[in-house]
Amino acid sequence: MLPQEIIRKVRDKQELTTEEIRFFIQGISTGQIADVQAASFTMAVYLNGFGKDETLALTLAMRDSGERLEWPELGEKPIVDKHSTGGVGDKVSLMLAPMLAACGVYVPMIAGRGLGHTGGTLDKLDSLSGYQTGVDIDTFKKVVREVGCAIIGQTADLAPADKKLYAIRDVCATVESIPLITASILAKKLAAGLQYLVMDIKCGNGAFMENISRAQELARSIVSVANGAGTKTTALLTDMDSVLGTTVGNALEVEEAIDFLQGKKADKRLEEVTIALCTELLVNCGRAKDNKEAKKMLRNSISSGSAYEHFVRMAVALGADKKMVENFSAQRKKAPYIKPVYAETPGYVSQIDTRQIGLGVIMLGGGRTRPEQNVNHTTGFTSFCQMGNKVDVKTPLCYIHAEDEDIIAEVKALVRRAIIVSPDKPADKTAVLSKVL
Known about the structure:
The chain is of the alpha/beta class. Helices cover about 45% and strands about 15% of the residues. Helix 4 packs parallel to helix 9 (about 180-190).
């Protein structure tokens, strides 16, 4: 087979065979196909799309480009996971994994770092002194087996073709292709040996998929391909027109997650999304007979202290200091400047440009402007307002946590521009928009 002929077929909207797709992906993995050819391939797919069978073949080829995990040592208990397409203030994974483990399922989670204006689970976990996100597969499997859950980064052995292809897509304007997104997400998840998966497809001005029809298209693609590959999958479309939870920024979000697991007062939307995703997995895998039983199990995992215990055990097993984890609020490093931001006029929060808030965290050093850049874990926002909240001279829009005093005025101006305050309270909006089977 010739790489240029495969590219030509995609360019001319001709369907590729499974063999042609596997040949091309294998060539990317081994270096026999040049980066310029891989870039041309992704652009052709971006412009002309892929059919369902082609997307499935691409996903399986990328999955099979490296090691595939198997879990015979786990016995009959279900192996489950969740994936989010990325949002602002999205710390759901930090609660979901230990909550599900406390309910008697295994959660081997391969997570990522921040991308664009959205935060990354691995960057948040780096706030826990000593926590290792780059462990080898044997350590990963040991922690999952002994604790019930583990959250780590992609290893070099899992779906290496995806890692190379994504780097190429990132610099040639083909990231947004739905077939390529589908294959990229699922290659890693399927390589981890999952039996059940739930997708959290973010939709709104703080998501990569701002348009609900585009979000639904992505959800249908992922659900179809994952089920075709033998992993039972459903997707929830969730709102990202405002910050999820009341914190944005790495250590600040970890603290909110720990408070959640300890049963302290939780943000309504954050709780709704977390419980909905957990419920979906518990019912789909048969651990709970219906949503009512699943929600009861989940709430008991919090009230009993079991979910929090699983979080601590996971963190310690992956290298974190136990005393620091158990006293995170008191022992975490804090930004030297914490300043409130007040609205220019009192009223109700009626609109939030959530993407701008994510960019505000990057301005504060909590995100990256270069791939190799280290992030500041102390910076971000707390007590962030939600839609419908009343704000005035005593109740701020949020608090800025900054390392550099000189940036505060600029970030304050960004926050005020991003939030519209109106005299009338807006109607309530559900955080879970719809479900795709």
